[in-house]
């Protein structure tokens, strides 16, 4: 679907259905990556024990920390998994962690060592613990794709294959498709030899479509439709997905493009940046379309400035009460007749009769009409070419697009010439386009039945605790509470990987699913287009059918999670259920602290500033009483004000404040998730006490729960990347998610014996 808020996660892509005109076909925003520390288990054991002894002798336990119960040798876990976990925590801690006050400086205490040992590569704008996990997954996938197809003896017990079939199986055919796409991406010499020609061919196709349709008056609609079939948003973003007020029905929506050209509408207010951007557009388009007058490309950025000014802010896009505007297709088309929405939707809708659509910003469409009336046709044609370049430039190797590649790096504060290692790019490429086949092989190597069972147990525990919290919440009236409890019971939990739509354990199902995706070992650019065309066609093919509630919005190797309001579901791919966030072989306070808090975060989204608008069946409706809404809004305002006090440094050195309203839903979810998970772990630990970790007797187990949570958010960011995120990301900066969430946790304050036990802000 076009850019419509559906996925809500700890660091999730904001939209389940995205046609991203700048990132390229089906290329969703992914976590950046950096190398993990790699040491042997023997070294970990030595490090943990030596580190513990030396620190205990040099720094006695500070008086303000509660003393842990007497530890017998038998209570200490010395398995390789426990030693590994303990060593990871010790190296993340600040070198002088025993001297820091956890009640005022917990982020430095927990993450000071992480920053010391993790530098950003030239190709990275930021990185955090999730980045390390993603790169571990990438490395595993690289080993899979650069090896031969696994034979019967190398399949794990958990393999979806169990036994290979005689002859060349569908699983082997799927594996060959994966490796063909991967190898075509790796073949840089061929890509360089082909040069700009594939992109030039598409540009010519776009230009001809626009030129030929001018006489009929359909130039805009035909060109927007053609780009949309490649997954590229221009002027508008049409798409298909669940209707919020009737979540079992697929509806069409039309939105402004999420990204006009620069990362956010606010960046168009930076004159120096806009001038640099304009120079890049002129440089690229003058070479790519030499027959176009040189003054025309310069006007493209002026058009983008007008589109950006007309576009809603990120905060407005996040507000479902403003973005859900159903109307007839006829009425929507009347808002901007020049764009001819009816023609665009007819071209994409696979023969389905569409009469009703969701317009996320009627104001944008009205202003778009005036902008188009005031823009020369030649400028519009160059604009469409530029959108094509932005979307597809990464699939060619040519001096023509080099200025833009450098500019994109500079926007994030990176080295203009930097590029990720090629294999990383190619793993992402395969995951974007053939992700469910890749998921099948990832799950075999990186997941287990025990992990799935433990994940299900944690999520069920979180549900139980959140239900109790709702029943104890005095500011909710009884009727609203009863419906809220029913909503928790109705939440669908998806753990690990899909077994329907498609079933990744069934090779024939996967082969059929990707049947129309044409992959060659020699045509990287065409592979990308085929992957994108498949994804767009698959999205629109849902029209006229019931919503498929078995679909997933993230592949199995993704290090993330999400809550989907219309589906009332929480989803945890196998990728996030990995060390150090999740491990069945270490004391439970570590997994509950990190993964459990993520699970609680997702469940809390069902009742945050967006999720509260969706009832127990996933319908967008007003199901809260007026008194409950007023009480919620009063308490929510505390979170808005609290997080607005956090800042990052702007381009001019002046502080830029976090948008407390934009980040409200995520901050509420962080607080609610942490509290629910702590209660869930406490009950489990009372039934079955956890072992202690070596070298960490400075902390109680309850304190290590919060250390584990915060370790997940340890990270670094370049200043330019941090600024871009302030304007575009509904998540607060990582450091704020530690400091703010700890300040809002009564359990944290009690565990560390802070002077005040009262949370700064509290809902649940």
TrEMBL record:
Residues 1-31 are annotated as: Disordered. The keyword Isomerase does not apply. Residues 102-498 form the Peptidase M13 N-terminal domain. Belongs to the peptidase M13 family. It comes from Lasiosphaeria hispida. Its cofactor is Zn(2+). One of its GO terms (biological process) is protein processing. This is Endothelin-converting enzyme 1. Keywords: Hydrolase, Metal-binding, Metalloprotease, Protease, Zinc. Residues 560-758 form the Peptidase M13 C-terminal domain. One of its GO terms (molecular function) is metal ion binding. It comes from the Eukaryota. GO terms for cellular component: plasma membrane.
